[in-house]
Backbone:
């Protein structure tokens, strides 16, 4: 019995707190704001901390691979173009003066580009908005209903068959119009299927 009375008293206190009104304005009182504990300095891991590590792994790895490939191709392009530019008389003298002959100058430019590109890629790949987008993309890809091997093979056969039918149909139309234009004198060359 005592437990029931305590339970009822607690319920009454809670309902009184919910029903209390601000005496001045007549509106219900608002709860006090939540005070969060301060984050200690260095607790976020610093600049090289990976934001939400472990989430969206495959989407992040695919994006990193694409960015890396783009960086390699751009570096290769720069090396080829800078090598040509560095052959100019003014630049060649300057590079000889600081002991950076032909290939070393191009290597230096590509290395500076690679370092800047890597920093920029890491910076944008680790921004919370970019990471949240990649994580959301990864979760949406997990919801995709992928076709089975049997359905994929059937669809592929239909597409290949349709392409062959359209190709044969276009070939027949082409032969017809070639013969027609030869017959009315627009084309002077005899169609190949009639012989020479």
Residues:
């Amino acid at each position: 019995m005592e437990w029931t009375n305590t339970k009822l008293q607690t319920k009454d206190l809670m309902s009184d707190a919910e029903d209390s009104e601000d005496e001045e304005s007549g509106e219900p009182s608002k709860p006090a704001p939540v005070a969060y504990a301060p984050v200690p300095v260095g607790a976020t891991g610093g600049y090289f901390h990976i934001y939400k590590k472990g989430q969206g792994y495959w989407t992040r790895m695919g994006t990193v691979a694409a960015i890396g490939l783009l960086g390699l191709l751009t570096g290769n392009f720069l090396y080829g173009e800078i090598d040509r530019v560095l052959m100019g008389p003014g630049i060649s003298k300057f590079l000889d003066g600081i002991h950076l002959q032909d290939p070393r100058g191009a290597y230096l430019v590509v290395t500076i580009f690679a370092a800047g590109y890597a920093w920029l890629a890491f910076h944008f790949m680790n921004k919370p908005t970019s990471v949240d987008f990649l994580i959301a993309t990864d979760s949406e890809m997990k919801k995709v209903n992928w076709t089975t091997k049997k359905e994929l093979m059937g669809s592929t056969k239909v597409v290949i068959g349709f392409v062959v039918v359209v190709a044969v149909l276009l070939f027949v139309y082409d032969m017809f119009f070639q013969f027609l234009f030869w017959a009315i004198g627009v084309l002077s060359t005899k169609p190949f299927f009639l012989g020479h």
Residues 17-22 have pLDDT under 50 and may be disordered. The first helix runs from residue 2 to 19.
